[in-house]
Amino acid sequence: MVVVPGVEISCSWRGRSVHLLGYLPDPAHEELAAELERTRESRTGRLRRMVERLASAGYPVTWSEVLARSGDVRSLGRPHIADVLVRNGRYPDRDAAFADVLHSRSDFHVSHYAPAPERAIALVRDAGGAPVLAHPFAAARGHTLPDSLVEELADAGLAGLEVEHRDHAPRDRERASRLARRHGLVATGSSDYHGSGKPNRLGEHTTSAAALGALLEQTGGQLLGASP
Predict the structure, then answer these.
(1) Domains of the chain and CATH, by start
(2) pLDDT per position as a tens digit, 96-130
(3) Helix, strand, or coil (residue 102)
(4) Where are the annotated segments for Disordered (predicted)?
(5) What is the pLDDT of residue 222?
């Protein structure tokens, strides 16, 4: 088995959440590591405030439960709150918790620091990695990104565009494929698997070997399990 090391960075563009994937960046790159740590610290603080708001409104969740459920995960997020709410019987699954109280327009929502996508792209590039824009047209997540942003990010150094994703309808995949071809971006795929709390199945959408090769040509990283 060959593993492609990477990171997912939550960015912000005009009040919208933008997820950037960084494949094969150098984990020892000081500036990227510092930016990720700043983001993690902000996410932890905002998550605690969200738990306090929910608990004050009578929802069955405490900060100690969230920490216990998250285990040794370094980056805490709303799914960890959802897992506690599901375990305590308030919702049947994560999706239901997000749809009701954990979405970005909820009264319980608290924002956190997130870099601009252009900055994240620059950091991933400086660290020798390949930046890829994740699920840009996933309407189920509350919003989609405009074609103009894809063009701007391509000019800023974006390497790829996620095409194959469960939240992309066939027309969205065609749109993403067309944009990838237009701007010379590598078309990738992902199951977006974050554990058993989501319906996503590991490997349900993948990146082709050819696309992976095209990304590797832009990086200085080493696949785990591959021969040097």
Answers:
(1) 6-36+113-216 (3.20.20.140), 42-102 (1.10.150.650)
(2) 999 999 998 899 999 999 999 999 999 999 999 99
(3) helix
(4) 185-204
(5) 66
Q: How many alpha carbons lie under 13 Å from residue 173 in its C-beta half-sphere?
A: 12
The predicted model scores a pTM of 0.86
Tally Cβ neighbours within 10 Å of residue 13.
16
Tell me how far apart the alpha carbons of residues 112 and 51 are, in angstroms, rounded to a whole number.
Answer: 14
Q: Is 101 helix (H, G, I), strand (E, B) or coil?
A: helix
What does the block give as tokens for 40? Answer: 């993690």
How far apart CA 167 and CA 191 sit, in angstroms, is 10
Give CB contacts under 8 A, 24+ apart, made by 40-43.
Answer: 40/74, 40/75, 40/76, 42/112, 42/113, 42/114, 43/10, 43/75, 43/76, 43/77, 43/112
Q: Do 110 and 49 form a contact (C-beta atoms < 8 A)?
A: yes
The pLDDT of residue 70 is 86
* Rounded Cα gap, residues 115 and 39, in angstroms: 8
User: Distance (Å, rounded) from C-alpha 189 to C-alpha 163?
Assistant: 6
Closest Cα to residue 162, out of 144, 193, 185, 182? 185
